[in-house]
Specification:
Distance between the termini: 154 Å
Largest sheet: 4 strands, antiparallel
Order of helices and strands: HHHHHHHEEEEH
Radius of gyration: 52 Å
Number of helices: 8
Number of strands: 4
Structural class: alpha+beta
Helix content: 55-70%
Shape: elongated
Amino acid sequence: MSTDVQGRADTGPDPTGEDPGADEAAAGGGVAGEHVADEEAAAGAPSGEATGAPQRPRGAVWPAVALLAALLFCAASAWLYWSAHTDEDLVYSRARDQALAAGRTHLATLNSIDAQHIAAGLREWREATTGPLRDQLRRDENKSADTLRERGTSARARVTDAALTGLDDTAGTAELIATVRITTTTRSGAPAADRKRMTAGLERTDDGWKLTSLAPVPVGEERR
């Protein structure tokens, strides 16, 4: 009988109504459970909350990035605009200077001749021209040579003033007005000086700017 009682005491419920296993579980769920809960809370919490450091809202970063990108775009656009206009101005200025310099040189050439070297002088005239003016000089070359030999007069011209009155760099054309001082020497050796105003047309060729037309300014217009 004692064995049965002992067995019942070992396996039966506690007469007081309390479950020892429950107490052990409660005891184990105390410290260990709190420790696990603390680890889970620490792992799940953001670093800023764990350390207490202030956090910058992520949404505030994008406006700053967008503003920086806009500023960089504006700066780049302004630089490209300025660079393009600067380049265009530079190209136009270079074309203007080249056309003006060539016009002055060719005007002096077409108003100069050496009576001792007429053929060479007429060749220089052709080389200074293009288009209609060059064609006209070719047609009149023999007649001009005979007239120059008959007169026997040499002429030396110098452009004292010149300016472009028009320039189309895209089309490669220009207009020029100039004052030319021409000193002529006859067979007798008596020099004479004359001043003329002329207009000329120019065209850009593979060999540079050349004259396409040449005409004196009428006296009435010269006085204005």
